[in-house]
């Protein structure tokens, strides 16, 4: 039995002190559906909404609680959820409450599902009425920068559900700092262009019952402890690790990011000479993957696993661990059932790195609510946003969608309680895949397929290093 310092039970106060994030994210596409208000009225705007200039809109749109009741017209909200998902129920409840407080405003919610990612830009460019929309801010601000409204002044309005706090101050500071940091890289003026919600982080999710049955009393924090736990699970008759085609990037990225940090991993996949692939840490990685394969720590299914096969095996108790996002417990809730004992931990610390990785880095982000700068009804639209990110709605997301709320002083869902430890450790925000996906076609067409050759024993560690160095040089020749 491995005896390491166990995780202490986390109180809500402890969680809040860590300024935590988590949420829901990557998934397959859903069919678009529409949920429109039954009595659509002709859109009538207040005088303060006529100006379409970004700065003027933000200034004219600033309202307070005394003027909210005078709002009128129509507001159109495009959601990233399908109407069958639990998030939609929470949104519908928030819209109903908003319309009761603002009877002269009609709200149309269009549930696009993940198809919104390909539909939103053409719709905005065509001039279709969309006042509010959901997107991942990390990609949306660059892709849609000509359409997003700067929200700084609006965020100073009173929040819904947290007395004495502005909208900005009612949301977790770490989330707000993150979305603000995205403006400059997107080519936008410094400020806030998205309101974070449904935050997420990448962690190992594990079955506590299987860990306990194998005699594991604490989660691993180092790679050596991780391997020891894998052996105990194997001896208990449990396959330790799985992944599938949708998330295999997280495993290679997680290892290299833990050893060297995401900036190094980013440079690795963009190295035109191929020489970085000859770094000793790459050979160490390859040898560790060989160990996982040869000792049977990887699921026998990983070679052919298509999403969501891996996460279903975790939920069914067929495998112990799966590296994924904090949306996972919600996605597999129907399969796992209410008695599944969820646990999570950060990617273990990999030795012989450069001190820029380890658990100071965490891959996290959030979905976001963004507003169309050409909206003709910004005051009413932002008032609806206040309900959507208000305490009641955010705690509804926690209760019904197992998502950590974005608001301060809010209750977390039990399956994600241990995620607080990872956020407490984190000081650096790493990108999705810990930088391993940043090579574009080289990452998708060479890095990931060759990793699968290594993970399934089709190529030896030394040959892996040589192949990656040669393939990188060949790919980038002339570029």
TrEMBL record:
Q: Which organism is it from?
A: Paenibacillus lignilyticus
**Listed name of the protein:** Extracellular solute-binding protein
Leader peptide range in chain numbering = 1-22
Query: Which lineage do the record's taxonomy fields give for this organism?
Result: Bacteria, Bacillati, Bacillota, Bacilli, Bacillales
Record family assignment: Belongs to the bacterial solute-binding protein 1 family.
Q: Which UniProt keywords apply?
A: Signal, Transport
Q: Which InterPro entries match?
A: Bact_solute-bd_prot1 (IPR050490), SBP (IPR006059)
Annotated segments matching region Disordered: 28-65
